[in-house]
Amino acid sequence: MHVPPMQALRAFEAAARNRSLSRAADSLNLTHGAISHQIKALETTLGVRLIERAGRGIRVTEEGERLATRLRGALAEIADALREAAERSNPRRLRVSATPSFAARWLLPRLGSFLAQHKDIDLDVRSSMALVDFRRDDADVAIRHGFGSWPDVHAELLMSDTFFPVCSPRLPKRPARPADLAHHTLLRSDDEAWKPWFDAVGLDWPEPPRGPIFNDSALMLQACAEGQGVALARRSLIGHDIRNGVLMRLFDIDVPAPRRYYLVYPPRLAGSPKLALFRRWLADEIARDEADASVRPRRASVKRRLRP
Question: Which CATH class is domain 91-160+259-294?
Answer without folding.
Answer: alpha beta
